[in-house]
């Protein structure tokens, strides 16, 4: 199995790469939204598709064999850049920026047209994705069991997420969290997360194939 991967680069190099990839991902995110909402004529859609295919071919002219992987630098900086919740190279990610507030992790995210399930409302699987991620990050562990209660529908727009470890028993952590909008909680979550026996540090040369 592919493991967490150590990458021997400086924080300056991490910042440089972040500066290169973030605008590209923002552009792709705009493209996703435009593709959903455009009402231009079919010829314009075909022409846009050809331009996008050319851009895709440019990017594919040099690429990794498999997924990005979860990379870490010597000072512990994480680069989970392909992650669908927080990845700076993944346009599917809103992206969610997770910060610490005391014992809790918190995040504020704006969910637009790409996350719609029922009309005007956030898809339940997207709520699960974001809650799974923030609870998992609070635990720094793998999701074992995740239980969600959709208390009321979440309108598209600004949402707030929280997660906090409430109990630890060996490698087993119980984490609670929620998603809310301006009117209060829409989804509550409780999960059992299991810390892996082995956490990281393959050298790039030791990497298994995808
Ligand atoms: C920074 C990180 C951010 C990432 C956030 C994103 C989180 C994710 O999406 S992770 C991906 C989704 N999750 C998965 O794919 C997990 C798949 N399952 C697995 O890999 C394993 O079954 C795993 C790791 C959960 C447990 O395996 P393993 O370490 O062998 O557990 P095991 O030794 O059998 O059991 C340890 C304890 O956990 C309990 N346990 C095991 N599996 C589960 C489970 N699924 N649910 C609840 N409890 C469990 C056992 O009962 C045992 O408890 P106790 O010590 O009280 O007897």
UniProtKB/TrEMBL annotation:
Catalytic activity: dodecanoyl-CoA + H2O = dodecanoate + CoA + H(+); (9Z)-octadecenoyl-CoA + H2O = (9Z)-octadecenoate + CoA + H(+); decanoyl-CoA + H2O = decanoate + CoA + H(+); octanoyl-CoA + H2O = octanoate + CoA + H(+)
Subcellular location: Cell projection, Ruffle membrane; Cytoplasm; Membrane
Enzyme class: hydrolase
SUPFAM superfamilies from the UniProt entry: Thioesterase/thiol ester dehydrase-isomerase
Keyword Heme appears in the UniProt entry: no
Key word Transit peptide present: yes
Keywords recorded for this protein, A-Z: Apoptosis, Cell membrane, Cell projection, Cytoplasm, Fatty acid metabolism, Hydrolase, Lipid metabolism, Membrane, Transit peptide
Domain Thioesterase residues, every copy: 120-186
Entry EC no(s): 3.1.2.2
Highest taxon of the lineage: Bacteria
Membrane topology: Peripheral membrane protein
Family membership noted in the UniProt record: Belongs to the THEM4/THEM5 thioesterase family.
PANTHER family per UniProt: ACYL-COENZYME A THIOESTERASE THEM4 (PTHR12418)
Name the UniProt record assigns to this protein: Acyl-coenzyme A thioesterase THEM4
Phylogenetic lineage: Bacteria, Bacillati, Actinomycetota, Actinomycetes, Mycobacteriales
